């Protein structure tokens, strides 16, 4: 186990206690505090042509949803507290294909600033449909050729993160961050395996110039699946890279390295791999573009780590001060599960009616490919959004 690990998983009651303690700290402080609050309520109608990604028996469904979200941020001298609480309420036209859902989410944290750095802690919980999470993470959907079924079940994620940034000199800084993530799957039918993943990363940043920073990182992680027939594993590795702010509109970053994973089986089998990430963004007066490429290992819901290749490209055009149009393309290849590929292309139009009301329309085409099969679906979504900013 990693140094910061704990055998006991955080429950919803634990998260509530953390939130209450943070709020008590705010109330009990004597210095002047600046508070910002906001509330958002999207009301959404969605049509999905094939939510189960069936190859021969496509069955469409309509979904109606409300997703209220409340956020607050309190700044008090060198300390900042923040929290975002949301609830996704969803009603389906066909309960056999898509169940009604009530999915909560909570993100709460504290950041402390001091003369040479910053320290922060964040707690996070989220419930989400596996038809969304597993399409993105693994490509496992309702009709999976390897027998695993995700369908419209629930993925429950609970995470606790720590981050520390400290300037060692005028040019050099140290960053340390860690994360403990517990994920479980619930529902009437699911072949997915819950897991616990612990991660610790330490990085040394050196400023080569005002625009460029060189980065060296060391990391270690522990993956423990919640299944007696699966084995836990530990991964350690390093990255070398840079961040380059070319000008105020154009920036990019690149890092790459190697890692070694040791399985906790009888033979202590081990294998080496590599990982890399490239990120680029460009902004003009009317447009913004971004490109993200990566190869990595991530916690998987099949009792092992997933090795993934990923590409995401997006482009946004501001038609006016109140209107914008965007395109987003995503491609993910899961090399661990027989080269499953998932692709999605989304077009979105956003219109801001006034400070309190907005309208969103989007259309998405998704495909899933493996060695034997190919399936797809199309969805369209329209939302009216009510905003109550900074009340």
Give me some keywords for this one.
391 residues; mainly beta; Porin; disordered N terminus
Describe the structure.
The protein is mainly β and 391 residues long. The chain has one domain: Porin. Helices cover 6% and strands 63% of the residues. It has a 19-stranded antiparallel β-sheet that branches. The longest helix has 17 residues. The N terminus is likely disordered.
Please report the distance between the alpha carbons of the first and last residues: 45 Å
Largest sheet: 19 strands, antiparallel
- Residues in helices, as a percent range: under 10%
Identify the CATH class: Mainly Beta
Condensed summary:
The chain has 391 residues and is mainly beta. It is built from 2 helices and 19 strands.
Question: How are the SSEs placed, and which strands pair?
Answer:
Layout (H helix, E strand, L loop, with lengths): L11 H17 L5 E15 L12 E6 L2 E8 L2 E14 L8 E14 L2 E13 H8 L16 E14 L4 E15 L8 E13 L4 E14 L7 E13 L4 E14 L6 E14 L3 E13 L5 E14 L4 E12 L5 E13 L4 E13 L4 E16 L2
Antiparallel strand pairs: 1-2, 1-3, 1-19, 2-4, 3-4, 4-5, 5-6, 6-7, 7-8, 8-9, 9-10, 10-11, 11-12, 12-13, 13-14, 14-15, 15-16, 16-17, 17-18, 18-19
